[in-house]
């Protein structure tokens, strides 16, 4: 039996965003996820893919917005400490806004929408696929934007469910399937973003 998505049933465009015409949104690419209790599986590879895409976006004159989560002092998400800072490989340069959020959807109680044009394409990468990437893609879709999520520039971690661990790759793929079913276009590699 052939499978279809809600996107296909609704006739939504399945063409990935063009980088030069989009805003690249980097979600929570903080040191939080590179060590300790929140270390993600495959964070190094996803960081390299995101850094490559960021370099290309800057070269092509695309707008770039960095999003970080602030969990407050003493948490793994403390943006005032090294643990909560954006990883140096994808750190903002002058003129690139940094949006501070406190919930998974980066559009909630932030000024993220003010950095975007109505209905525009957004390319979303970052950490964690199943949480802030997925919920920000949903927020973008519900806000009238057209998200494309880049799988190899995202990562997550294994999660416990009813006494067993769900492997990180399965959590990652499930989140991407949810996004691709309705909220946005999903591409496997940053190389697919032209």
From TrEMBL:
Residues 23-168 form the Isochorismatase-like domain. GO terms for molecular function: hydrolase activity. Gene3D superfamilies: Isochorismatase-like. SUPFAM superfamilies: Isochorismatase-like hydrolases (SSF52499). CDD domains: nicotinamidase_related (cd01014). Keywords: Hydrolase. The keyword Heme does not apply. This is Cysteine hydrolase. The lineage of its organism: Bacteria, Bacillati, Actinomycetota, Actinomycetes, Kitasatosporales.
């Amino acid at each position: 039996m052939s499978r279809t998505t809600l996107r296909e049933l609704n006739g939504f465009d399945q063409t990935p965003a063009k980088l030069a015409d989009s805003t690249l949104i980097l979600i929570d690419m903080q040191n939080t996820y590179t060590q300790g209790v929140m270390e993600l599986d495959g964070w190094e590879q996803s960081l390299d893919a995101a850094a490559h895409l960021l370099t290309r976006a800057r070269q092509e004159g695309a707008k770039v917005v960095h999003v970080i989560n602030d969990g407050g002092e003493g948490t793994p998400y403390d943006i005032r400490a090294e643990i909560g800072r954006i990883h140096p490989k994808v750190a903002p340069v002058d003129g690139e806004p940094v949006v501070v959020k406190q919930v998974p959807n980066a559009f909630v109680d932030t000024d993220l929408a003010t950095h975007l044009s109505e209905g525009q394409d957004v390319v979303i990468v970052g950490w964690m696929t199943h949480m802030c990437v997925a919920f920000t893609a949903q927020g973008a879709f519900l806000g009238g934007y057209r998200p494309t999520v880049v799988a190899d520039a995202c990562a997550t971690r294994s999660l416990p469910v009813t006494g067993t661990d769900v492997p990180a790759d399965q959590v990652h793929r499930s989140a991407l399937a949810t996004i691709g079913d309705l909220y946005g276009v999903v591409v496997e590699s940053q190389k697919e973003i032209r």
